[in-house]
């Protein structure tokens, strides 16, 4: 198929491009600034409307682009960028698709398990209600922005968890204190972290491209979420380092503010019910084997 993709230079985008190319799909990068790669088309992320010719020939549109939520403290300006770069662009793509004579067969939009907010020990499936914090509000509106095309084509929202990779994301930032032997639990340590290996989340996006039965929200998380305490212990064992130095919640809040509250201290115990019901199999379902597979 002809697969058009935004955010192709991001952590998931790069891995996904490699997997889709290996599967024989033709890829078109939708970029905000021409970079010289073949098969590029430039789109204006600030535009309120796009020329439908931008998506001419598109079978599947994958929309990954958005402001990095972990790039710094969440000032009001940064929160506005986090919100606008996701919701506005998704809405614009939806309205562009409606103006096409030959629209794509599927619109696959990134989302996140932040949709569920801080849910404690509750086991969360795709049918669970949204939370009530900032990230939950962003994810809810992000998914709603695709409503205009929901009756026109297949729409999938991949609610991604914490992506594990040595190439980027949350894990490299965690490694330094652990390698120095000063790693430990954050806050109570009882909060659940829904994680997923980079290869598996990319494979799940590929599955969404190729599986016409998959629609609506899909939890992009490994089947077995763990508590922060379990994650810390397993990572320490993988690195052969002690994990005796906890980071109190108050210190995390002082360092990172609201971002710590919603990304690190919040508890999200999400499971990939929709994907597994349709036959998707995770290569790395458990944390211990996942960490062992990474070159740490």
Order of helices and strands: EHEEEHEEHEEHEEHEEHHHEHH
* CATH architecture designation of the domain at 2-164 and 194-221 and 269-283: 3-Layer(aba) Sandwich
* CATH level 3 topology of the domain at 2-164 and 194-221 and 269-283: Rossmann fold
CATH homologous superfamily of the domain at 2-164 and 194-221 and 269-283? NAD(P)-binding Rossmann-like Domain
Description:
By secondary structure, this protein is of the alpha/beta class. The chain has helices spanning 11-22, 76-98, 134-144, 170-179, 198-210, 228-239, 249-256, 258-264, 273-277, 287-293; strands at residues 2-6, 26-31, 40-42, 60-63, 106-112, 123-124, 154-160, 162-164, 192-193, 195-197, 216-220, 226-227, 269-270. The chain has a domain at 2-164 and 194-221 and 269-283: NAD(P)-binding Rossmann-like Domain (Rossmann fold, 3-Layer(aba) Sandwich). The chain has 10 helices and 13 strands. The strands form 4 sheets. It has a 7-stranded parallel beta sheet, sandwiched between helices. Helix 2 (76-98) links the parallel strand 4 and strand 5 (106-112). Helix 6 (228-239) runs parallel beside helix 10 and helix 7 packs across helix 8. The two termini are 36 Å apart. The relative contact order is 0.15.
